User: Fold these one by one.
Assistant:
Number 1:
Amino acid sequence: MNISPDIYHQLSILASQDILSDQDCLYLEFGKVDYEIAWELQKYLVNARYEGSINTDIIMLLEHSPVFTIGKRGNRDSLRVSEEFLKNNNTPVIHVERGGDITYHGPGQVIVYPIIHLEKARIGVKDYVAALEEMMIQTADDWGICAERHSKNHGVWVNNKKLGSVGITVRRGICFHGLALNVNMSLEPFTWINPCGLKDVKVTSMAKESDQSIVIKDVRNSLRKHMENVLNVKLNRILSQS
C-alpha cells in the first residue's frame, strides 16, 4: 500500500486546529504499508512536530509487508540465511536509527509508531518504553495470555518466548519508531535471524498462545483502547486509509 501524498496536507490541517486539547492525539490507522514509506512519514512527522507545523502528538497503527530491520546496535551477523535467500523471498533488510538489533515485520503483526514530544508529555524514555510494553501486556491479557517483561531484553514475553518488541529513537526530544505485537503472523522468518541479536530465542504470537480464534482487527481495537489509558490521551481525531 502507498500512502496518499494528500495525507501530508490533511495532517497539517487537522493537527494545527486550536480545538485540540492537551490530551488530544492524532491517530492514523493504515492497512499494510511498505516499511520505507511508513519510515519516511515518521521522519516527516517528527520534523513537523519539532518545527510546530503540527502541534499535537501523533500515533500511527499499521502492518508491514515482510521486512527485516536492523537497529543501531545490530549488524548483518544476526542473519542466519544468505542475501540470495532473502532476495528470493522478497524480504529486504533495512538499517534504521532505532535502538536494538535485528527484528522481523510482516502481515499479521500490529505495529504502533507514536510520535510523541516526550518533554511536553512529561515522560522519560525509561517510563515511555515501559508504557509501550504495558500496552502489549494489557492487550494480550484481553485474550487470556499472560505476557510479562523479561530482564533479557525489552518487549514482552510469554514463558521465555518473545511476543512483542520495542525499539525507539529520540530526535530533538521527539520519539518515533515504537512497538510490534505478533498476532497471527507466520513465525518462520524469525528462524532466519537471531531475534534481537540473541541466540536461542524463540518467538511466539497471540494466535499460538491462545486457544481462541484471533481477528487482527479486534487486536487493533484493543491496543488502541489501552494506548489511550496507558498514555492518558484521547485518540479522537482519526484519519484512516485501508
Number 2:
Amino acid sequence: MKYLSFLVLSVLLFPAEPQLELNSFHDLSAVSIDGKNIPMADYKGKKVLVVNVASKCGYTPQYEGLQKLFEMYEKELVVLGFPSNNFLWQEPGKDKEIKLFCKKNFGVTFPLFSKISVKGRKQHSIYQWLSDSTLNGWNDKSPSWNFNKYLIDEEGKLLEHFGAEIDPTDTLITRYFTKGKDSGIKN
C-alpha cells in the first residue's frame, strides 16, 4: 500500500514532460531573433537548412558559407540559424548582440532565431523533432557540436543530417538544389 501511495504521489508531483506528436517540420514554430513567433509552415514549398550556430566556435566562419548558400539557392532554400550556448558556452551573447555580430562580420541576411537549447532537458521543440525518430521518421542524432545541419524537404520531412565538419557549400548539401545562381558552387 505504501508503494502504491508513493507511485500515485510521484505521478501527481512529477508529471511526465508532454511528448510531441508531430510528423512535419511545418507543424512547429520558433521565436525570431527579433521576438516574433514564426510558424515553420511559412517555409512550405522550400527546402530548409536548420543550423545550430555560435559566435565563438571554430566553425563560426561557416556563417559565410551559410549566407552564400542562402543567396545562391534563394528560390528553393531557406537557411534558419538557431543560436545555442550548449557547447562550451560558445554563444554567450544576447539576441541583439548575436544579430549584430552576424550582420557585421558575415553579412547574414538569412533568418536567425532567438537563442535556444538544442539538447538536454530544455531542448527546443524544433530540435526535439529533428533528433527523435518517432517524430521525424528516421533520425535520433542531436547536435554533437555547433553548426550541425538538418535538411528538410519542401513537404516538411527530414532529408539529411550533416555534422559540423561539413561545410555548407559542400556538394553533400548542394546536390539537393538545382536552381542556383552562377557563383562557383557546383552540384
Number 3:
Amino acid sequence: MQKDLFDPTSEWRGVRSAAPKSSFLERYRLSMRLDQMIVVCISLLVSSALVFGVGVEHGRKMERVRAKQPKAEGLIRRVIPKAETVKVTVDTKKENQDNAIKATQIAIQEISVAAATADTKSIDVVEKGKYTIQIVTYTNENDAEKQIKKLESLGHKGFVIPSGRYRQVCMNRFNDKDQARTTLRQLKAQGMIPPDAYVRPITR
C-alpha cells in the first residue's frame, strides 16, 4: 500500500490541486491601486488646467502691456519734438541777445573812435594857435560838420572843439588876441558870422 502511495504511475500523482482563490484583501488592494491611479490622473489634469489658466492670464496681461506701449511711444514722440522746439526757441533768443550785445559793442567802439578823432582835431588846433573865434555850438556832430564845410567854402578854416556833449564850431587860429578881435569885427560887419560870435582861447 505504501508502494502505491509513492508509485509515480499512480493516478493520484496526476491530479493537480486546485489554485487558491484570491482573498478579499487582495481584491481590495488592487482596487485601491486603481483608485490611486485615478486620483493621480485627476491631479495631473487639474494641475495642467491651472498652468494653462495662469499662462492664458499672463498672455492677456502681456497683450494689454503691448497695446499700451504704442500709446506711450506716441506720447514720447509728441513730447520730444516739443522739447526740441523749445530748445530751438531758446537758442534763437540767445542768439538774438548775443547779436544785440555785439551791435551795442560795435556802436560803443564807433563812438569812442569818433570822440578820439574829435580830441585829435582839438589837439592839432592847440598846437597851431592860441586863440580862435567861436561862432556856434551844436549838440549834433553832423550839424557841426555842415557848418565847417560852409566856412571852408567861404575861405576860412573851421574846426570843432568838443566840450562834453556839445560841439563848439570855431574858425581860424590866431597867435595874437588883438588880431583875432580885428578879424571878428570885420566878419561881423560883412555878416558872415552871427552877432554873438566871440574870441576865445583854444584851451581853457
